Amino acid sequence: MARRTTSGSTGSPxxxxxxxxxxxxxxRRSFGDFVMAFLAFVALLALVVGVPGALAVFVGWPLPHxxxxxxxxxxxxxxxxxxxxxxxxxxxxxxxxxxxxxxxIRAALSxxxxxxxxxxxxxxxxxxxxxxxxxxxxxxxxASLTPGLSQLGHSAAPEGNHKGxxxxxxxxxxxxxxQQAKATAAAVAEQADHVAAQxxxxxxxxxxxxxxxxxxxEGRHHDSLWEIAQRHLGDGRRYKEIYELNKDRLxxxxxxxxxxxxxxxxxxxxxxxxxxxxxxxxxxDAHISPAAQKQIQQYDKSGHxxxxxxxHAQGGGHASLPAQRGPATGAVTGADGPAEHGRxxxxxxxxxxxxxxxxxxxxPLLAAGLLAALGRRRRQALWQSALAAVGxxxxxxxxxxxxxxxxxxxxxxxxxxxxxxxxxxxxxRGLAAALAAxxxxxxxxxxxxxxxxxxxxxxAQPAGKPPAPWRPGQEQTFWMLSRADAERxxxxxxxxxxxxxxxxxxxxxxxxxLNLEAVPGIVSLSGRESDRAAVFASVAAELATNGWSDRMTxxxxxxxxxxxxxxxxxxxxxxxxxxxxxxxEAETRQRRGALGAAGHDSxxxxxxxxxxxxxxxxxxxxxxxxxxAEDARRLAELAADASRxxxxxxxGTESDELPGAAWELQITREGRLLAPLLxxxxxxQLLPAAQQRAVVELFAQADPDRDPDGPTTTPPFLVDITEQxxxxxxxxxxGPYEIIGLDTPEDDRGALLQEALAxxxxxxxxxxxxxxxxxxxPRGVTEDVRDALVERLRAWLGTDPDGSVRMRADATGRxxxxxxxxxxxxxxxxxxxxxxxGKGVDNRAVRGRLLxxxxxLVRGSLLEGRPESRYGWLSHEIVDAQLPLxxxxxxxxxxxxxxxxxxxxxxxxxxxxxxxTAPADERLWNELLRATxxxxxxxxxxARAADLLSRSGARGLPPRxxxxxxxLLPTWREGVPAAG
Length: 980
Known about the structure:
Shape: globular
Number of helices: 33
Structural class: alpha+beta
Radius of gyration: 35 Å
CATH architecture of the domain at 418-697: 3-Layer(aba) Sandwich
Strand content: 5-15%
Strand order of the largest sheet: 8-9-7-6-11-10-19-18-17-12-16-15-13-14
Largest sheet: 14 strands, mixed
Distance between the termini: 71 Å
Helix content: 40-55%
Low-confidence stretches: 1-28, 139-172, 177-206, 305-353, 390-394
Mean pLDDT: 78
CATH topology of the domain at 418-697: Rossmann fold
């Protein structure tokens, strides 16, 4: 990925990058530091000198003064003997602790990063480290006390100061006030220029070149560039510097580093000049073997060649500048370390070869919202089709997406992070509930940052100490919640406090969500029309489908009429600005009056406490067309009080300025979202026009009102149900999972292989390799592990007698199973299709046999008894809704078959069998009542009515079922209590 420089208003590189500059605070030594140092000195003196002195004075020498005789073994064991044994133990403990102190002092004074380990001295060495650190605290430099500036001790003062300040300025994401940004922009620019000049002059490398050898894995721990940077550079985020130094250089095994997440044990990494630590090697080094020295020397030579090419290409060699580091790749929860989120790095490398939408793969919250909404829409279509069927049954199969729609659906599967959405929603509602319990109002939140799984809220002003488990952040205007604490939250029945949060993009390892309804005025967006449209579409789609909101209204003007299909209850489209102004003037007056009548200062006080039932849903306006001067003035007047009323405005403009704009954003041609006065520079979250059309197509295909005939009646894959069509591999998915025709995998990867096969069996149209990886490893996986599983799965499935493989890749790279690999779900669909649309239509005996065989295949629910920790991807599927409907259809068809010949008991038996898999299907209830009535036994019908009433619970019987009972048994209401 090409390096980027900060763009000015026109999008051209005009100056140094400004990644959220923060004022650098130099930590000064306090009185408490001196007290801690004194106490540490006293403790060390007592432990290192006092302990042996006390032992010598009060106990003496515990060991015998001469060689013990045989009589010594038969002597009586006295209290003095125990004291001597204990003294020996204390002497050994003292010696070990003293060794730890010496090791820690040596490491601290020499500047070596990680001190050596004293064998068996875990707790002792930790105590020694803390005491030595406290003792040396008063002598440390300001640089060593400031996070991000530890490298200053390894370089000349001017260069180190500039470099360190830039690093510290990048540490904490945040929205700066205009005053803060102006105060620091000049300093950051000067620092970046100085660092760039340092790099061009070749002074960035400190002393001899340093190298690191990738360590082999220990248990589940694998070495990663992030951890190497954390250990030897003091900041894991600097792993990109190591990557740039070693990218595409030939290793001894003939391979090259192409992805930061894909490194191999034994590889050599050249390190930045300020790297430190005992594991590093500087040449020449007499402590390593001649073979290792030769290997490192050869690698070093390849580096000189590579650096020369890089400087020529970049016009000065900025490869290792912290201020020039590459962007985040859209980590799902904000983290961007190669060890934690290999899936994102593998995603970027395969983007063009597989044709998935990078915009959606890198937008985890947006993708999760779209996928959840799409699933709800498809289930609604299925149920509506089933319940509306009269005189004939409709099918269970929605159209299979193709082309761009299929690629976008795959991208949604790969990119979606529903867990992040769930944690964000629970965290926000938990905060609201905790504040309400303390009778405290909700603070105004401008933004939320997701950083390595942790959540940071940026407040408009200090709001005191946050309620537990929230903690104060790095500033008084930040509240922070760790991922571990967020996972402890349960579902809370309270209003969503900040439904206006929406993702704008990522910066390094952080994802920014801006609270549109809290902005004190209009947010303007400038840039090319197509770029602005991609931002507007992304914002609209996420607001319409996100999982951390309740009710809201989103008004679209100047774009997105087709986007209303995503959420008709949230999205509405207006034709022009005049209609918008009239609408918002009326709503503004109404909200002001409602707040005054309720006695609230703002909508936030209406979302917690006794009045939380009012909800105070936000109204967000997305205006893509630039308003006229008069309309802009009227909108500015409306927006002046909008944040108090829960109304937000995002307005597009051709120029950089818009009257009444409180915050100004700019989208560049390169996809960067800039806000210089706010100190923001993000990789923007976009929904380009092509992906927008494909998303809309997915929702249109799932619209239950689009096609009066409902879903198709033809299954996507029909099985030869004759004896000649016996499959080579048969998997039973309806009920407990069983596989026939394959050997059980012997290693511990068997569960993965079986899960992968189940996913492929449910998608006969093919599964994208990245979709397979995202399903099996929802927390991320590297490309090599994914490819290894695919090869292992191919080998496990084997080949047919004619030599053809049972799993192949089609032209798009999707994995497809051969027709010889079949599931009982395939057979179930084929039997029902053949009975109702094939040979069974004209042959009653064949129809009865096929329906009976089909119902006999049903052994329970889908993948019954599956491990809770696996098969999470089923939450994105609709097969769990399709299967009960299909079984109900089979039961209904078989019941009708028997009732044609007045075999009511057989019909009841078929319906009861279907009810075991589809217990809530009202059609089965009604048909069961009719079949029971056909027996001519009123008492049996009354008992059946009582049974159905008990199943219905507190809701009671459905209206149509009650009406049917009134027809079949008018006295059922009197007899049900007695029968029950």
